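Worked example 3 (structure in, sequence out).
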């Protein structure tokens, strides 16, 4: 599943080791914002070694942005068979994805790994990135070479985005609603999975976090970036369908299947009209939870 993506600073070994034992779906060993410039180069070997060890979660590395002097070295020194994915911050163009995908493809081939085996998850977190998001996500069709496409989903970075636009973001974040909706829409239009939402930094506002998780899931996100271990459990719970939702989905699929057998394409379930789009959504929900209808 792709619910909880927990960041761990690559230069703090004890935090990385702890993160790799937790119940996050993905642990992201960070080389970007949580690592000081003076320590970035030295942290690469630590990050690579950490992702060679046994762990519960999938292991990603967040490299520095494509426009920085560190990105190439980050990729060259950390990618190996133990790395499941790369998080690429501050993506602003299809050319960014082409360049990084091409480099990863060559590193995989050089190191005897299946081409396209390492995921690439871009972060949309700048004005330019959001403004061009449709073109960014067209990168697959515009590639000058063939091979498996490694971008399955994108992540939204609200903190950098809000800072760049000088937004004064309140606790319930209505100022970011339009940006989030655009990330979801562009992802679906490009045939990608639901995106991953931005971290929540208000550690002493659990009620606000619960509201944010509810809005996020209902708004089309499939998971969330986490910056503290205590966020894993509520995130995992929030982005998984509840027993009540699954039970309703089963009723919808069963009733609609019976209606189709009678030659009908609409039926009422729990006071709601169910037609093909509603039935398909219910079926997808059951499949995501591993249930047979």
């Amino acid at each position: 599943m792709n619910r909880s993506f927990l960041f761990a600073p690559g230069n703090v070994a004890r935090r990385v080791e702890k993160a790799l034992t937790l119940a996050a779906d993905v642990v992201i060993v960070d080389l970007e914002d949580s690592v000081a410039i003076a320590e970035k180069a030295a942290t690469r070997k630590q990050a690579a070694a950490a992702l060679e060890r046994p762990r519960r979660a999938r292991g990603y590395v967040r490299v520095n942005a494509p426009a920085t002097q560190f990105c190439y070295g980050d990729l060259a020194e950390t990618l190996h068979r133990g790395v499941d994915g790369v998080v690429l911050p501050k993506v602003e163009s299809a050319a960014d994805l082409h360049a990084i995908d091409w480099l990863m493809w060559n590193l995989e081939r050089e190191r005897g790994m299946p081409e396209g085996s390492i995921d690439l998850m871009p972060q949309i977190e700048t004005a330019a990135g959001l403004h061009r998001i449709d073109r960014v996500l067209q990168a697959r069709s515009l590639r000058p070479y063939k091979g498996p496409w490694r971008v399955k989903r994108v992540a939204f970075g609200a903190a950098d985005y809000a800072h760049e636009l000088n937004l004064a973001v309140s606790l319930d974040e209505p100022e970011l609603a339009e940006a989030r909706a655009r990330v979801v829409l562009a992802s679906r239009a490009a045939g990608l999975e639901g995106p991953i939402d931005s971290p929540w930094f208000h550690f002493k506002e659990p009620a606000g976090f619960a509201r944010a998780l509810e809005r996020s899931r209902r708004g089309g996100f499939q998971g969330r970036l986490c910056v503290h271990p205590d966020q894993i459990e509520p995130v995992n719970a929030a982005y998984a369908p509840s027993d009540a939702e699954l039970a309703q989905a089963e009723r919808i699929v069963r009733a609609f299947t019976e209606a189709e057998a009678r030659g009908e394409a609409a039926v009422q379930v729990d006071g709601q009209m169910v037609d093909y789009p509603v039935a398909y959504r219910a079926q997808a929900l059951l499949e995501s939870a591993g249930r047979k209808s």
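Notes: The longest helix spans residues 243-261. The two ends are 20 Å apart (CA to CA).
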